[in-house]
Amino acid sequence: MSTNNPEVIPAHFDGEHIKLDEPVELERNARLLVTVVRNNDEEHEAWLRVMAVQLDSAYNGEGDDYSLTSIKEMNPDYEGR
């Protein structure tokens, strides 16, 4: 890994250690930069509103509106967010 070509590797903190989410080979004593992405519900809600406005604009306000009753088969991997 070169500092001229940084690589983004997803990771998480398990309460004790930073764990990489993907396997990656690192040289011993490799220099790393860690960016902490904090959960911010207010900011998240603001982004959702912006995205909704953009989608509505893209479809000229005439996008299909599907209700949950129109779903024939539920996605078992969907967490229901």
Could you walk me through the main structural features you see in this protein, from its secondary elements to its overall organization?
- With 81 residues, the chain is an alpha+beta fold.
- The chain has a domain at 11-62.
- It contains 1 helix and 2 strands.
- It has a two-stranded antiparallel sheet.
- It starts with 10 loop residues before the first strand and ends in a 23-residue tail after the last helix.
- The relative contact order is 0.08.
- The mean pLDDT is 80.
List keywords for this structure.
81 residues, elongated, two-stranded antiparallel sheet, alpha+beta, 7% strand, 1 helix, single chain
What class would the helix/strand composition place it in? alpha+beta
Low-confidence stretches: none
Tell me the Rg in angstroms: 20 Å
Largest sheet descriptor: 2 strands, antiparallel
The oligomeric status of these chains comes to single chain
- Amino- and carboxy-terminal Cα gap: 36 Å
The tally of beta strands, per DSSP, is 2
H and E string: EEH
Helices, by number, come to 1
What global shape is seen?
elongated
* Proportion in β-strands: 5-15%
Mean pLDDT: 80
Share in helix: 10-25%
Q: Main sheet: which strands, in order across?
A: 1-2
